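Consider this:
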Amino acid sequence: LALASDVLLPQPSYASKLMTKLNLTLVKPLYGYFQFQAVHSKPESVEAMDVDQAFRADGKYLLAIYPHGFIPVGLMLLTAKLAEVGYLPNVMGASVISKMPILGRFSAMGGFVPASARNVRSCLQREFPHNITMIVPGGIAEMFKVRPDCDVILADRRGFVHLAIESGAELVPVYSFGNTRVYEVATGAVAMAFERISRMLRTSLVPFTGVGGTLIPFAHPQAVAVGKPIPTEGRQ
C-alpha cells in the first residue's frame, strides 16, 4: 500500500519543515563527529562570521560547492546549518534519486531536486525560505577523482554560471575542506570502468570503504567556507 501510494501521489516540490526538523535531529550529532565548522568571510574583514550572515531573506542565491567527494558531506552539513536559521535550501542532485521508491519522496521532502537546467531556473525564482539553491558542478565525474593527497576539481563546468546570470541570482563559491577524506574509493582501471557504467546509468556506482572496511565514514574534520555572493544581474 505504501509503495502504491508513493507511485501514484506526486512528489513534493519543496522542502517541508517537518522533514527538515527530522533531518536536523539526525545530522546534528555529525557536527561533533566531523568537528564541523561553517564560516563566511568578507574580503574587507579578517574575522570569520557565521555562515548565515552571507545571505539575506530577500535575495536569491546559487551556491556552487566544490569538491563533490564520494559523498558531499559538507553540503549536507551546510544544509542543516542553514535550516537552523530558517532557510530550506533546494539541493540539486542525480535524477535517479527521485525515481527510487520511498527514498525519492523522502529526499524531495528534504529539499532534493533532480539536477537539470529547467529545475535550476525554477528554484532560482523561489522566495524565502527556499531562496538558496545548491549545486555540486563536479558531479559524478568528480567522485572518481578522489585522492588522499589532494583535492581534484573539475573547473571547466560553467553552465551553472549562465543559469545564475539568466535568473539574476547571486553566485556563491563554496569550498568543502575534508570532503574527499570521508571514504576511500577505488582508483585506476577499476575506477575508470565504474565511471563509464555510472555515466551510462546516470547514477553513481563507486567501490568504497570506510573505517575498518565498513560503511562508517572516517572522522576527518569537515569545514565549509562560504565566499562572498557575486551579483550577476546585468552581466553577460
User: Anything to note?
Assistant: The two ends are 51 Å apart (CA to CA). The chain has a mean pLDDT of 85. The longest helix spans residues 17-33.
